[in-house]
Write a structure and sequence with these properties.
205 residues; 6 helices; binds S-adenosylmethionine; Rossmann fold; alpha/beta
Length: 205
């Protein structure tokens, strides 16, 4: 079924292919009846709008976690730097204003709860079971490991772990996301459902 969003999603800056976005929406729609959804790595809100719209339909909640200071590749002079998102006054990247604007435009302020801090800090006292976790934060090995260790354990039985940017061929992309994906499978706590483009979907046994 086509997804109807109350915003022109093409105008939202982000890193998510259409087939991946559709998959996130459809899995979140099924999962969010069982509990809240959490994403790590919101940037300007593209994935949050798909996940959040699904949560809104089921009267659930999306926790959108991002320190909004950008990943390594967003910093000044790096490949994916966007100067519109750079606060020259304080000399820091800041995607939070753009994120808030887009969440408001998508009418999701009552559904999406922004957690503006790092993954490790947000996880410190976290106890809420999660029906779905989407990992799309920092792509260094350390950041991906932190995200996996901090959040996978909160997924309920039958819940979904979605990991973005899986590149089996190292020439095509960084290896941190696929490393934690393989780690989750090797733990035998998760089983593979499908891979949509670069989005891996696992189910917690
Ligand atoms: C690839 S972007 C996310 C793209 C987004 N999901 C979309 O749909 O466009 C990665 C985001 O992760 C955030 N990030 C990187 N490391 C983080 C960390 N340790 N804690 C929280 N957020 C982090 C960055 O600020 C950045 O906005």
């Amino acid at each position: 079924m086509p997804i109807s969003l109350p915003i022109d999603i093409e105008q939202v800056k982000g890193f998510l292919a259409k087939d991946e976005a559709d998959a996130l929406y459809h899995y979140a729609l099924k999962q969010s009846v069982k509990g809240p959804v959490l994403e790590i790595g919101s940037y300007c809100g593209k994935s949050a709008i798909y996940l959040g719209s699904a949560c809104k339909e089921t009267n659930s909640t999306l926790y959108a976690l991002d320190h909004h200071r950008g990943s390594e590749e967003h910093q000044l002079g790096e490949e994916y730097h966007d100067d519109d998102l750079y606060d020259h006054q304080i000399g820091l990247f800041d995607s939070f204003k753009e994120f808030r604007k887009n969440i408001r435009a998508a009418d999701l302020e009552q559904t999406v709860i922004p957690l503006v801090t790092s993954s490790a800090v947000a996880a410190k006292n976290w106890t809420t079971p999660l029906a779905m976790v989407f990992i799309d934060g920092g792509h260094s090995m350390e950041a991906a490991q932190t995200d996996y260790q901090c959040w996978a354990k909160h997924i309920i039985s039958g819940g979904i772990l979605a990991i973005h940017d899986l590149f089996p061929n190292p020439d095509e992309g960084g290896q941190a996301p696929i490393t934690i994906y393989r780690q989750a499978l090797a733990s035998e706590l998760f089983e593979e459902i499908e891979v949509v483009n670069t989005l891996g979907l696992l189910r917690r046994k």
